[in-house]
Write a structure and sequence with these properties.
6 helices; alpha/beta; single chain; transferase; ATP-binding; nucleotide-binding; Rossmann fold; five-stranded mixed beta sheet; 5 strands; 15% strand; globular; tRNA dimethylallyltransferase activity; transmembrane helix
Length: 159
């Protein structure tokens, strides 16, 4: 979960916005964008218990699983020479790919419990179309329209 805190004198109250979602949904990117846009302090936090503005970036499970597999492949090959690639056993990469969807299910279940049992007001942003695209320019436009613009509106209303 990524968090940013409003310390801008333009706004007269200290408020906290939380960006939630399972692994690989773009929470960090969105948090950085929103913090820069609103000129607020950015803080990364996984376990804070406060009740403020919550934004849930949600992606359809099958789309997310494909995206996470691709991300694991990209990260296991990024910035490494051939010798260091050999040091990462294929079984480790396979294990990560197997375990990450399980982690995602736990994360999504936790968000659902916050909504259903704790009755948290959560703004759900469905971003599946962002993850279904391959071309960067299409992804960037989908990200702006599907995620960034609605989140800007939510945070602006909240602040």
């Amino acid at each position: 979960m990524n968090t940013f805190i409003n310390n801008n004198k333009k706004f007269n109250k200290k408020k906290v916005v939380f960006i939630m979602g399972a692994t690989g949904m773009g929470k960090s990117c969105l948090s950085i964008y929103l913090a820069a846009h609103f000129r607020v302090e950015l803080m990364n936090s996984d376990k804070m218990q406060v009740y403020n503005c919550f934004i849930w970036i949600d992606v359809e499970q099958l789309v997310l699983n494909r995206g996470v597999d691709t991300r694991v492949d990209e990260r296991s090959n990024a910035d490494r020479d051939d010798e260091s690639k050999k040091m990462i056993p294929q079984t480790s990469i396979s294990s990560i790919k197997h375990n990450t969807p399980i982690l995602i299910c736990y994360q999504l279940d936790k968000i659902q419990r916050l909504i259903n049992e704790k009755l948290w007001l959560v703004h759900q942003i469905i971003a599946s179309d962002v993850f279904e695209e391959d071309r960067k320019e299409v992804v960037d436009e989908a990200l702006r329209n599907t995620v960034l613009q609605p989140c800007l509106a939510i945070v602006k209303r909240f602040l």
